[in-house]
From TrEMBL:
Protein name: Veg family protein
Source superkingdom: Bacteria
Alphabetical list of InterPro entries matching this protein: Protein_Veg
GO terms (BP aspect): regulation of DNA-templated transcription
Signal peptide coordinates: none
Species assigned in the record: Thermoactinomyces daqus
Length: 93
């Protein structure tokens, strides 16, 4: 199940490459970081987001397991500026 879940998340994100996203990530000790950027690339184990804000770094990467465990929340903005949450929902068989 674990491998299939990560593959499903990766396939979902591949459809959103180039679109604006907002991510909310746990950074430890009850701290959350919220950033916006463009989903730039997906790789076999991680995805890369090019950040809008001016930070000491331009890109961040997270694993698909971060979405599965909900330590990272992704929201995609479509062409009509509607927000689409990206989550893994286990389908019952």
């Amino acid at each position: 199940m674990g491998k299939n879940a990560l593959t499903e998340i990766k396939c979902t994100l591949e459809g959103y490459i180039g679109q604006k996203i907002r991510l909310k990530a746990n950074s430890g000790r009850r701290k959350t970081v919220e950033r916006t950027g463009i989903l730039e690339e997906t790789y076999p184990s991680v995805f890369v987001v090019k950040l809008d804000e001016d930070h000491s770094f331009n890109r961040v990467s997270y694993s698909y397991a971060d979405i599965l465990t909900e330590s990272v929340e992704l929201t995609v903005f479509n062409n009509n500026n509607e927000q689409i949450p990206v989550k893994y929902v286990k389908t019952s068989q």
